[in-house]
Design a protein that fits this description.
The complex is a heterodimer. Chain A is mainly alpha-helical. Chain A is built from 12 helices and 4 strands. Chain A has 2 domains: 63-129 and 223-285, no CATH class; 135-221 and 291-369, Metalloproteases ("zincins"), catalytic domain (Zincin-like, 2-Layer Sandwich). The chains are: A mainly alpha, B mainly alpha.
Chain lengths: 370, 187
């Protein structure tokens, strides 16, 4: 692979010959090789050429800070959606059954408070048992060092680069190409890759993927995503109930309409609006958080390996792979390095995508590596 | 006590809290730098342990490369004796061992027989991975040093860090010899 223009070791001298990928290849590219590249412009090198945007080290740290801030805002928005939806339903249902409006306001506030407390409690439960549930749902099996020495070595290298304890290592027996991290605390983490990924990727590419997963561990994404997933699920269930009750009430409570007719119309409108919009909004926020986290993990991967080429190569292979992974559970789709269900060519700015498109991710990676 | 008195007390409390947080942050940073350095040590020791096995395993195949093998053995024992010395000497000795090993690996490319030896291949994966771990632990050390140095040099910590015993830490830098790409002669 022509890595001339990417040779970061020339910009960061301390990467020198001790740089991670060079010893294996018996000395990296000599500086003399670089000028040869523009003379021979083949399509591959053109794609590899970094865009004019040049991100320095400080920009990278700023990018992580901005990503963290975005995620926190999105989580707050999600809690707000849940509380508003709960409050609205709590107010509208008593109105429909002919209760006193002042009473309805009290039940509305009560429902909003209940949503707040309940979603926090549920999140606590899910995050305590999350890692075991995820490993079970995906059929991942923990492997000892003797069985997969290279994978163990790569994971250990990345945990050293991140300054974190070594995660457990697991393999999923499928030909599909994918990987995921789990564990709600960095010292209880596990990283799993599929058999297909182990067979098809080079060591450098595997390192990029494992570093991406280590990024999820280091940024505590699993905790975030588990909490967010649980809250979204709760909002969806509550709103489903609300929509059903509208139909129920609407057909049976004709006599109540005389008491406060105007308010009943408003209540029905509120219920329908919440019932239709809240789950959509919640899902959109969840996917936005997920996409932010993917970008952040990609950036962390480059920070750990100092080598965007490996991850770019791996993403290309994952993108081209046509083996679907039908046994994967939808509940954990946001944890994988690429979505196991979607065909990856789809427009990825789409509001409901768990992952940005591979094209967009590679574009950002190239900007980081410049 | 009047309003002014309370304001003075509040200001003192705020300043004390701030200094406590500052101090704790500096201690955490220094501990991380020390931990990162020990991680490098662990990996360097692992490499020093692996080298004799590798030399033993390839000796039979690479009899013509006595100079390179001798250089590796010499660099290793220099690294072992530098272990208890000052940090700077240790960095230099380990860099020399890196260079010698790099030349050995480059030369081994021209011995196809080596690739067939399962034992050698396993040793080579272990050594390659250990080289990577050294590089990554050094990278983590340098990241930690940069964070800690920034902390020590930032205002207002810079006013008090020196008197509280916090100094800048040295980076683990590659030497000139370390940066050389090994020359391979094909015959």
């Amino acid at each position: 692979m022509p890595i001339g223009p990417w040779d970061t070791s020339r910009e960061t001298p301390r990467n020198g010959p001790w740089g991670q990928h060079e010893p294996a290849q018996g000395g990296g590219p000599s500086p003399d090789a670089a000028p040869a590249d523009p003379a021979a412009p083949d399509p591959a090198t053109d794609v590899m050429r970094p865009p004019p945007v040049r991100l320095t080290r400080t920009d990278f740290l700023a990018a992580i800070a901005a990503n963290k801030r975005n995620t926190e805002i999105l989580c707050a928005v999600l809690i707000l959606i849940g509380v508003v939806a709960g409050g609205g339903i709590g107010w509208a249902l008593p109105i429909l059954t002919g209760a006193d409006p002042a009473m309805a306001i009290r039940t509305g506030l009560g429902a909003a408070g209940f949503m707040l407390v309940f979603s926090l409690a549920w999140t606590l439960i899910a995050t305590s048992f999350g890692d075991k549930m995820v490993l079970g749902l995906t059929g991942a099996r923990e492997v000892p060092r003797a069985e997969a020495p290279v994978l163990h070595n790569v994971v250990e290298e990345m945990s050293i680069a991140a300054g974190l304890p070594m995660p457990r290592v697991a393999i999923v027996e499928t030909d599909a190409l994918n990987a995921f991290a789990t564990g709600t605390r960095p010292d209880h983490a596990a990283i799993a890759v599929t058999r297909g990924l182990l067979n098809r990727l080079t060591r450098d590419e595997l390192q990029g993927v494992v570093a991406h997963e280590m990024g999820h561990v280091a940024n505590n994404d699993v905790l975030y995503m588990t909490a967010v997933g649980v809250m979204v699920g709760l909002i969806v269930v509550v709103n489903d109930l609300a929509l059903r009750s509208v139909r129920f009430v609407d057909t049976r409570s004709g006599s109540n309409r005389n008491k406060n007719g105007g308010l009943i119309v408003v209540a029905i409108l509120v219920l329908v609006a919440i019932g239709l919009l809240a789950p959509l909004a919640a899902r959109a926020v969840q996917m936005a958080v997920s996409r932010q986290r993917e970008y952040l993990a990609d950036a962390t991967s480059v920070k750990l390996t100092r080598n965007p080429i490996g991850l770019i190569g791996a993403l290309r292979k994952l993108d081209r792979a046509d083996v679907r992974w039908d046994n994967a559970s939808k509940a954990v789709q946001h944890l994988f390095i690429v979505n196991p269900f979607k065909k990856f060519g789809e427009s990825a700015s789409a509001l409901m995508a768990t992952h940005p498109s591979v094209e967009q991710r590679i574009e950002r990676l190239q900007a980081l590596g410049a | 006590m009047g309003t002014a008195g309370w304001i003075v007390v509040a200001a003192i409390v705020v300043i004390v809290l701030f200094v406590v947080m500052l101090y704790n942050g500096l201690v955490a940073g220094r501990n991380q730098v020390e931990a990162a350095w020990r991680q490098i040590d662990v990996q360097l020791k692992r490499r020093r342990d692996l080298v004799p096995n590798l030399v033993e395993a390839v000796k039979g195949y690479m009899g013509h490369e006595q100079d390179t093998l001798q250089a590796v053995i010499k660099a290793r024992s220099a690294a072992v004796s530098a272990e208890s010395g000052p940090r700077e000497g240790q960095i230099q000795a380990e860099a020399a061992l890196s260079g010698a090993l790099g030349r050995l690996f480059a030369l081994s490319e021209s011995y196809p027989d080596l690739k067939a030896n399962q034992n050698v291949m396993q040793l080579q994966e272990e050594l390659t991975s250990t080289e990577n771990k050294i590089a990554f632990s050094r990278q983590h050390y340098n990241d930690s040093v940069m964070a800690q140095n920034t902390r020590v040099e930032s205002f207002p910590a810079v006013l008090v860090a020196g008197s509280m015993g916090f100094a800048k830490h040295p980076y683990f830098e590659a030497t000139e010899q370390d940066r050389e790409v090994p020359q391979v002669k094909l015959r």
